[in-house]
Design goal:
- This protein has 184 residues and is α+β, with helices and mostly antiparallel strands.
- The chain contains three helices and seven strands, in the order αβββββαβαβ.
- It has helices at residues 29-45, 137-148, 168-174; strands at residues 49-51, 61-66, 79-103, 106-124, 130-136, 165-167, 181-183.
- Strands 1, 2, 3, 4, 5, 6 and 7 form a seven-stranded mixed β-sheet that branches.
- The protein binds nickel (II) ion.
């Protein structure tokens, strides 16, 4: 296992549409190494999620782990560590809500982004099995942020009012009591 380098905004890989991961390679030694390295990298960086393009691997794989904190992220249900291969999001309710988002590929910055809050996710798990889940609220935001990375989109593209794109330090000083924040 290894902690990989997380590439930052400006690196062209973050702007590519990642390729579908070959289903027959799920569970291979390369796949397992990549997933365990992504997991270790995500934990080392203190993120809730990490997408393969963020470690310069242009395939549609993401890992997410929302811990049971109950503090920094407010009242958010935990989501155990899982791998999502070739995920597809379907919006079930267009109504949006906003959160302050951060991203390991845009270190030191925060931005306020509104996204739909009820989605379905269809994906393959680490065993290559088709799975489907519904997500609401903050969890729905995390999935959308993470899977945006698989299509060359960063949360900064979705900030409607750039006055709500701020340095993390200033966020803590001036905005922290407005909304929840998160790093992913
Ligand atoms: Ni991100």
């Amino acid at each position: 296992m290894a902690v990989l380098e997380i590439i930052k905004m400006g690196h062209p890989t973050l702007r590519q549409v990642a390729a579908l991961y070959p289903v027959e390679d799920i569970g291979s030694a390369d796949f397992n190494t990549l997933v365990s390295d992504m997991r270790e990298t995500m934990y080392a960086a203190g993120g809730l999620g990490l997408a393969a393009p963020q470690v310069d691997v242009p395939y549609r794989i993401a890992v997410i782990d929302i811990p049971e904190t109950g503090t920094r992220y407010g009242d958010v249900p935990a989501l155990p560590f899982a791998v999502y291969v070739n995920p597809v999001i379907t919006v079930l309710d267009e109504e949006t809500a906003g959160y302050w988002e951060g991203c390991l590929s845009v270190p030191g910055m925060m931005g306020y982004v509104e996204r739909p809050q009820h989605i379905r996710v269809d994906y393959l798990n680490a065993q290559g099995e088709s799975r489907s889940l519904e997500a609401t609220g903050f969890t729905a935001t995390v999935f959308q942020h993470e899977f945006d990375h698989l299509f060359g989109t960063l949360y900064v593209d979705r900030i409607r009012d750039l006055r709500q794109f701020v340095y993390e330090e200033e966020y803590r000083l001036f905005h922290a009591d407005e909304e929840e924040m998160s790093d992913f």
